Amino acid sequence: MNLIATVYAAEEPAGLSVHLDPYVVGHIGSMPITSTLITVWLVMVLLLIVAIIIKSRLSLVPGKLQSVFELLVGGAYDYVHSVLEDKKLTNRYFPIIVTIFIFILGINWIGLIPGVGAIGFYDEHRHLVPLLYPGSTDLNITIGLTIVAFVTIEVAGVLAIGVWKYAGKFINLRSPLSFVLGLIELISELARLISFSFRLFGNVFAGKTLLLVTIFFVPYILPVPIYAYELFVGLIQALVFAILTLFFIKLAIEEPFH
What we know:
Blueprint lengths: L5 E4 L6 E4 L4 E5 L2 E4 H22 L7 H21 L2 H23 L10 E3 L5 E3 L8 H23 L1 H5 L8 H42 L5 H30 L6
């Protein structure tokens, strides 16, 4: 089921409607192409272009821009290393953790650029269908990101302590109490698929809804501080998702307690 949080100002007397229907802008065969999917593709292209530009301009004597990037990347690397406490593990998982953060930040922020939501076309009901919309308001996308994080966490645990030891965290037949504790651990592990995806989806959806509602009722004054707040929320949600992935990797690579 495709769920995308959308809010639009309709021309009917009701004025404002909130829906969980997708903004479908077209189809490739039987696959619908939504505005959030286009946003994701655009962010991927932009990040690739930025990465190529930065790589092509690297030098032994860094300029101001390179110094800023080195400071940010170096600080993030040091933090990940302080958590994982192993250089090999840091080198292995730092790229994916940072990529998750930058990607989520990109799909959150690009839909907040003024005027982006107004670029689109009107459907047969005279509702505006935007070409770009914040990617995290699509539950399918947040679930996809969660699956990537979940698989990374589980693979990290298996590679660090082995298949049987890692499975022993969840299936322990030493005693009835150990079995119950393992079962609880397994349920909590699977619950991350729900908590990760719905946390990101819910916060961004609520913020986008609040912003559009204020624009509809108080179009010139109130949206400014709320817009700044939503930029902050987009940053925090990307940071929370990445940090939770990091800490769950840390938990996964630890030896099980007996």
